[in-house]
Amino acid sequence: ECILSGIMSVNGKKVLHMDRNSYYGGESASITPLEDLYKRFNLPGTPPESMGRGRDWNVDLIPKFLMANGQLVKMLLYTEVTRYLDFKVIEGSFVYKGGKIYKVPSTEAEALASSLMGLFEKRRFRKFLVYVANFDENDPRTFEGVDPKKTTMRDVYKKFDLGQDVIDFTGHALALYRTDDYLDQPCQETINRIKLYSESLARYGKSPYLYPLYGLGELPQGFARLSAIYGGTYMLNKPIEEIVIENGKVVGVKSEGEVARCKQLICDPSYVSDRVTKVGQVIRVICILSHPIKNTNDANSCQIIIPQNQVNRKSDIYVCMISSAHNVAAQGKYIAIASTTVETADPEKEIKPALDLLEPIEQKFVSISDLFAPTDLGTESQIFISRTYDATTHFETTCDDIKDIYKRMMGSEFDFEEMKRKKNDIYGEEELQ
User: Fold this and answer.
1) Does residue 81 register a pLDDT over 50?
2) Can you say how many angstroms the Cα of residue 429 is from the centroid of all Cα atoms in its chain?
3) Which of 160, 265, 273, 412 is 20 to 30 A from 244 (CA-CA)?
4) Residue 234, beta-bridge partner list
5) DSSP-derived pairing of the beta strands 233-235 and 383-385
6) Which GO terms describe its cellular component (predicted)?
7) CATH of residue 361
8) What is the pLDDT of residue 433?
9) How far apart are CA 145 and CA 263, in angstroms?
């Protein structure tokens, strides 16, 4: 919502942004001080002295990293919201196999030394990666007999004679699919996902992921500032009493007895429970540790992916770990957040394989969230509802949703270049003086 309010303001729309919370970012906020996190999860008492100063903590409610070459980074660069943020590269990505964790190779040398694959497997995998790097969906000469819109990914793996372990690690740690459904779909999307991973990795070398200092809550605040620069108005702590509808179309929002009139409305599912449908659940467990995660080379930030069939599940389990190096925790403390899509009536048991990797855990905060998708696409009502944050560990699906809402509102595709031009129209003159 904050990104859209920024983009719409740049597009010359008059934007009023209201939030019933006292902080920016709704579901994806970073909570500070630590006392507030204890309150939010109804934990008795206050954080122990050993946790340091409460205000040194900024704890994300929803763990995600940014793909260095991904859509959100492009949005940040085009809108120049990057000037309000500092990023650090996540030190490594790990994958779980047979009860152990291994580093996802990030260079050719690492791939050759990795114990994830045998020697011949490595050669075949390398061939496959070269194929992916050269693959260009607009140039059939790069297809080598593969039809990107028809050939399944299963067949592409067969073509390169890749074994089950390599398939697992490619699909889940590189293409970042949460389930194996992708195997029987046309290969174009998977190949593009692996390309995104490789290109993101190429930018910084340690891993393809970035994370903002002071936590993810800085992102919505950055876009809120963008909106404000273009004349948008923000109101925090503003209770929403009613969405006013006339003849099936939104005409305003009622708050504290007054109605703010509008032509279009963007909101998350929590404001319009009658216009969304539940599509699943995610469990997230925020863990405070006093040590880096074992077998990660003492990294102060990392991601661990537990592919579903390693733990007899349908969906992967993820761990995102960050620390005091990112100004989100007190000195010497680490925050690890485990998350996965809920499949059974006992979600805490489902996430146990991840928590076992984190022991000893000093304090944990468990949340189980319903996932909602809009049943009303806004065509008539002009109410545009975002989807709940899913279990993925990066912002690509969120950006797809932003582009989808943009298209439904504006009737045209979201175009980065167009946005750049509009910005120059408004700012072009002053810059020169």
Assistant:
1) yes
2) 36
3) 412
4) 17
5) unpaired
6) Golgi apparatus; membrane
7) 3.30.519.10
8) 43
9) 51
Residues 6+ apart with CB under 8 A from 319: 293, 303, 304, 306, 336, 337, 338, 354, 357, 358
98 located within any domain = no
Integer Cα distance of 342 and 316 in angstroms? 10
pLDDT for 427 equals: 54
Note whether 160 and 196 are same-domain residues. yes
C-alpha gyration radius of the chain: 23
196 vs 54, 172, 190, 209, 391, CA distance in Å? Answer: 38, 14, 10, 11, 19
Residue 386's CB is within 10 A of a number of other CB atoms, namely: 23
pLDDT surpassing 70 at residue 430:
no
Q: pLDDT tens across 335-363, in order?
A: 999 999 999 999 999 999 999 999 999 99
pLDDT average, residue stretch 218-223: 94
- Contact assessment for residue 298 and residue 304, using Cβ atoms and an 8 Å cutoff: no
Tell me if 353 is assigned to some domain. Answer: yes
For residue 417, tell me if it sits in a domain.
Answer: no
Tokens standing for 349?
A: 């048991």
Are residue 329 and residue 222 in the same domain, yes or no?
A: yes
Neighbours of 178 (CB within 10 A): 24
φ and ψ at 107, to 5 degrees? -140, 170
> Strand (E) positions, 93-228?
93-97, 100-103, 209-212
Residues 144 and 188 placed together within one structural domain of the fold: yes
Whether omega before 360 lies within 30 degrees of 0, making that bond cis, reads yes
CA–CA distance, 386 with 5 (Å, rounded to integer): 13
Nearby residues of 65 by Cβ (< 8 Å), 6 or more positions away: 90, 209, 210, 211, 303, 320, 393, 394
Q: How many structural domains compose the chain?
A: 2
| Section 160-176 average pLDDT | 92
**Which residues, other chains included, contact 356 with Cβ-Cβ below 8 Å and sequence gap of 6+?**
none
Instruction: Look at residue 402 and give its three-state secondary structure.
Output: helix
